[in-house]
Amino acid sequence: MAARQYALGMSSYSTGTGFGQTPPTMPGALPPALPAWPKVIGIISIVLGSLGVVGQGCGIAGAVAMPMMAAPMREAAKQAAAQAAAQGAAQGGGNAAAAQMEQQVAMFDAMGQYTPLLVGSGVLNIICAVLLIVAGIQLLKRLPSGRTLHLAYAGLRTVAVLFAIVPGWLMHVAQMEAMQASGMAMPPGLGAGFMTGMGVVGIVLGVVWGLAYPAFVVVWFMRGTIREQVAAWGQGWGPGFGPGGQPPRFGTV
């Protein structure tokens, strides 16, 4: 009787109908390890997005506060310029100080007229930063929407960076015109041509920096291996498995 019960138990285990059976202890094929890139890129996206929200928020606050701060400073600069001019007439000097004060007033006026463009650029970049945070969270969860949102961020961020060129260049030109109108003498070798070149270099560096991560995102998520892995997340296959129970090519990343 005991032998018969043992045989029946072994039969039920081999056919998968037994309950409470001991799992196999013999070595065999194990599922491939999950790739680490979703966690790495997800964390980077969340950090960059958070920094973007804080930085752009401060930029918007500064752009909004600039006209309000410029009004009292403009009056103080005009009074100081008048006093410096009076002292210069009495003592034969002080004209340089007066010209410097007038230059500051003109620069405040030049920057203040582009406040709406600065605010609009900041708001657009905050939207990009929030989108990047959400994309990073979805990627940490290994959801296909993480890839989609990252690509959407790359496109929107490109538009935001190119749009930011407009107020940046206009403010640079306005400052140059204000400096020239004030009659301020430029140091040798630092003429209008040099300042224009510096402005162009600054804008180019800003564009390269602003588009660095979006370019990486597009290149990375358009790779065939990455698209295969992301597609596996959305098909209900278990972690580490692809179509037909076959493991995706994790080792090729």
Residue share in helices?
over 70%
Shape: elongated
> Could you give the distance between the termini?
57 Å
Number of strands: 0
Strand content: under 5%
Largest sheet properties? none
Structural category: mainly alpha
Point out poorly predicted stretches: 5-19, 237-253
Number of helices: 7
| SSE string | HHHHHHH
Q: How many domain modules?
A: 1
> Mean pLDDT, as a whole number?
76
Question: Radius of gyration over alpha carbons?
Answer: 32 Å
How is this structure best described in words?
The protein is mainly alpha-helical and 253 residues long. The protein has one domain (35-233). It is built from seven helices and no strands. α4 packs antiparallel against α5 (144-181) and α5 (144-181) packs antiparallel against α6 (192-221). The radius of gyration is 32 Å and the shape is elongated.
Features:
253 residues; mainly alpha; 7 helices; 75% helix; elongated
Give the helix/strand layout.
Blueprint: H1 2-14, H2 37-91, H3 95-112, H4 115-140, H5 144-181, H6 192-221, H7 224-233
Helix pairs in contact: 2-3, 2-4, 3-5, 4-5, 5-6
